[in-house]
Design a protein that fits this description.
Length: 308
């Protein structure tokens, strides 16, 4: 073996102890469900989309929309990869590592189902056409921000977003008129329900050990990510620059009008507001203060204003 390779080996963190003893039966239950409810996007039949009698303009709008969904689902995988590394070298028990592996696998199959839909409608776009999306999408996952939080606190913040995207996905499922899109959305929703459940378990198990200061930081990070990136064209178009907002909103509106599993831009903010209200209620028992989100809740509806 070359000396330089040897150096690389010893630089790896110590993997021992590799914990096999079950510590969190509720997390293991999610792992069992994930195994029982596995599905294969390549086996879904998208022929109804290929043969649908819809204008080309609508096909292109739908392909853009489902490409965006594919990029977003893919955005969860680098985050998952970092957490898997943390879980392994943080000596987490087997069920925690298994959950993170499942999370990565599931987000990757949501990505796959989405690009297959885009392809069946017209063509999947591997790179966004707009410069704006090219710039903003790589910023969705900021590992520097993640590193400021403990492993479980960071996972809990992530699942708050799972909850919001679950609410939007539910609306998109209800919008879908095509069998294959409905089926894909239902299967994705079933996976997301487990991701949300994991967040609830984490909060229940770990949030009473977190300091008030850390809770404040969690709330701030949640608000920052929501406002800074997810309202910029992924969850909703409200924070996009004017010209991009109009173009993006038109494509979404068209996809929604034809029942391609999209949300109309005029309805997205209301859905997010409802989701946000549920999240505030969920984190209330642990006193995690989420700053007001004026784009979604209006300038006077945030808790800070209410308290004033
Ligand atoms: Fe997903
Ligand atoms: Fe998810």
């Amino acid at each position: 073996m070359e000396a330089s390779m040897l150096e690389e080996v010893v630089q790896n963190p110590n993997p021992y102890p590799i914990v096999a003893e079950l510590a969190y039966p509720d997390i293991w239950k999610l792992c069992e469900q994930a195994r029982d409810l596995a599905w294969d996007p390549a086996k879904l039949d998208f022929s109804d989309l290929r043969t649908a009698d819809i204008p080309q303009e609508v096909r292109l709008a739908g392909a853009e929309w489902w490409s965006l969904r594919a990029w977003m689902e893919h955005g969860a995988t680098p985050y998952g990869a970092e957490r898997l590394r943390d879980a392994i070298f943080g000596h987490q028990p087997f069920e925690v590592k298994q959950h993170v592996v499942n999370f990565i696998q599931e987000e990757l199959r949501h990505h796959e189902a989405s690009f297959r839909i885009a392809d069946a409608l017209a063509k999947y776009q591997p790179v966004p056409q707009s410069d704006y999306f090219k710039k903003i999408i790589p910023k969705f996952h900021d590992e520097k921000e993640e590193r400021q939080m403990s492993f479980f606190a960071g996972m809990a913040v992530n699942t708050l977003f799972e909850q919001l995207s679950g609410e939007l996905l539910q609306a998109r499922y209800e919008n879908a008129k095509f069998r294959s899109i409905r089926e894909a959305c239902a299967l994705i929703l079933r996976d997301e329900a487990r991701h949300i459940q994991f967040g609830r378990i984490v909060m229940r198990r770990f949030f009473d050990q977190i300091t008030e200061q850390d809770k404040e930081m969690l709330g701030k990070k949640f608000a920052k990510k929501l406002r800074g990136s997810l309202l910029n064209g992924v969850y909703a178009v409200v924070n996009l620059p004017e010209d991009e907002r109009k173009r993006s909103a038109r494509a979404r509106a068209l996809a929604a009008e034809y029942g391609l599993g999209a949300t109309h831009p005029d309805h997205e903010v209301a859905i997010i507001a409802e989701g946000l209200a549920k999240i505030r209620a969920d984190v209330a028992p642990w006193n995690v203060p989420i700053p007001p989100i004026p784009e979604v809740e209006g300038p006077t509806n945030g808790p800070a204003r209410r308290a004033a």
